[in-house]
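Progress report, Aim 2. The chain analyzed during this reporting quarter is listed below.
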Amino acid sequence: MEIVERFFTAPKRSFFLFGPRGTGKSTWAESAFPDAITVDLLQPETFREYAARPERLRELLDANPKAKDIVIDEVQRVPSLLSVVHALTEQRRAVRFVLTGSSARKIKRADVDLLAGRALLRTLHPFMAAELGRSFRLEDALRLGMVPLVVRAEEADAVLRSYVALYIQEEVKAEALVRDVGNFTRFLEVASLSHATVLNVSNLARECEIGRKTAEGYLAILDDLLLAHRVPVFTKRAKRAVASHPKFYLFDAGVFRSLRPKGPLDRPEEADGAALEGLVMQHLRAWNAYRGEKNSIHYWRTRSGVEVDIILYGEEGIWAIEVMNSRQIRPQDLRGLKSFLEDYPQARPFLLYRGKERLKRDGILCVPCDEFLGQLHPDRSLAAIERA
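Predicted C-alpha cells for the chain:
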C-alpha cells in the first residue's frame, strides 16, 4: 500500500508522539527512522520482557553503541521504562528517543513525569485533506472520517464500525480505567450527541443515569485516550456576557458518526452539520499542532445565543470561522460573524459552506469547505488561504 507522506516533522531531540490508535504513529516512525532500533510494546513477548526488566533497554543500547534513534512504541504500556529513558537521555545525549503512545494516563502517573521536560510533547492527528491530495473526498471524510487505519482499509465501513469497540476493549478494559465497560460504552453513545455543541456535564450525567463526578471521570478518560477534547469560550477583553461552558468534540468525524445513535427521531441534518464542524475543527487542530501551536483555539457564544463556531487567537491575529452545512448562504448565516466583528473589528472572518464558489458577502469571505480544507497546510497561514 502506498504510504501517505505526513506533515508531521520530527524534532531533533527526544520526544513523545501521542495520538489515538490508528492515526499512523508506528507507520510514520518506521518511515521516518528506517535505521532506528524499535521496541514494540504491543508485541506480547516484548511487553513481558520490558515489564519484568525495564533495564533491558540499557542493555540493548550497550549492544548497539552506534544507534542514533530508539523508537519505543506504545510506551504507556510500561511506564517504568521512562525511568531508564530518563537516565539514558542524561548519559547519551547523542541518542534520540521517539516515544509513541495512544494514552498519557499511565505516563502522567509515572514518577518521571514525562521526563521532566527532557523530551518534547508532540501529537499526530488523523489525515489532513492536503495530505491525501486528489484522493480526498469531502463526502467520504464526513462519513468515514480521516483516521488512517480506516481511510486506508479495503472495507472502511467495517473497520470504522469495529474501531471504537476495539479501542474500548484494548485501552479502557486492558488498563482497568473503569469498573463497568458497559456503562462507559453507553456514556460514549450519549456523549456523541454533544459533539460540536456546548457541553453541560450535569445534563450529560442525567442522560446516562450516572453521577456528575462519574461523568467528569469518564470525560477525563476520553481526554487521556485522546478520543475527545473540549474547546473553551473566547473571553479575551469581552464586551458582553459570554457562555461559560466549553464545547465538546470527538477527535474524528467518522468516529462521531459510528457512535451517534441512528433512528427515526434522529434528524440527518443535525448529524451532518455536527460532522462537518467537527471535521473542520480536527483539521485546524492538526494544522495548529504541526505549525508549533501558534494559536489557541476557542469558540464564541454570547449569553443570548449568538455564536461563532471557531476562533483562533495568536501571533498571526484573530480568525473567526463559521461552518455552515448548506449550499446557499443566507443573511442570517452571517449574523454570528458580524456580531463578533462588532466586538473585535481587527478579526478576519471566514464562512465555510458546502457550495462551489468563493464569494464575499458584506465583507465576509465565504469559501467552499472542501477548498478550505484542501488548502490548509502547516506551511501556509490562514492569510495565504484568504488571499488565494
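The longest strand covers residues 307-314. The chain has a mean pLDDT of 91. These observations will guide the mutagenesis work planned for the next reporting period.
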